[in-house]
Amino acid sequence: MSDLLKKSFPSEILFFLVLLFLSAGGCNLMPPSSVSSEDLRNRHHFDRAMIRIDQDLGQGHLNDARHLIEVWSRFSGLDASMKDRLAAKKEKVNRAFALYDTGQATQLEKLGRYNEALQKIRQARSEEPGWSSLVNEENLIRIRIAAQSSMAPDWKSMIRRLMVLKTRDPKDPDLDKTLAWAWASLSETQFAGGQYREALLSAREALTFDSQNARATTVQHSISRMLEEWTEEGEKKFRRNDLFGSIALFRKTLAIDPSWSRASKDLSMASEAAGVEIHRKDNK
């Protein structure tokens, strides 16, 4: 029979029939793949994202690293090993944020901005609840705020007594220096307690009695720098189309210094843009 087939069918036809038989599923010589091409693509993108997170952390782009964590946390196709890797990266990102917030708190403390420093320490604690050193730092800042705030009534009482003396002898230069010292002390106390509007007004009072008072000038400069930071952050939010976030920062700035023209102009522009945005949403 085999000899007959060989004679009846050329070798080319036999080869074609074999190929046809295999392609029709008659014989599967290749084992089925347990991983789909889509799974392979997802794992490839995931691996690249994990590398990117490390790169972002190394370059100080903490928000970008956190964004990638959030994106992949919402992805439903992660297997157990991928979930473990993602959890480890999330801990790493949280630790980086906690260190960053702690560093900012230290700088704010040096500037006497204890109220803001306290907020940064709280943020760091939310990132790393297990760090006992952050609890100690928070307690220390609270003590400093309490100590500074307790001095405010004394300075105000002293200023009232000095002003009585001022009415009796308005041309006494030493009295002017003393009043400038008292107002500057009150300004520092208010500044440390986060009463920035009051601190700014007290610093200005000090400078009316002594235009060269270094302590009042320092408080005024610190508040101006803080308002610049808030305004710049508000402008960044505006450029990212976070209109209401930018408006909140501009209003926060103007609540301390209503004459801050840059924030006033920015607020007007952001409010107008937000009004347009609201109108568009209402019409949808």
Automatic annotation (TrEMBL):
PROSITE patterns named in the record: PROKAR_LIPOPROTEIN
SUPFAM superfamilies associated with the record: TPR-like (SSF48452)
Name of the protein this chain belongs to: Tetratricopeptide repeat protein
Organism: Leptospirillum ferriphilum
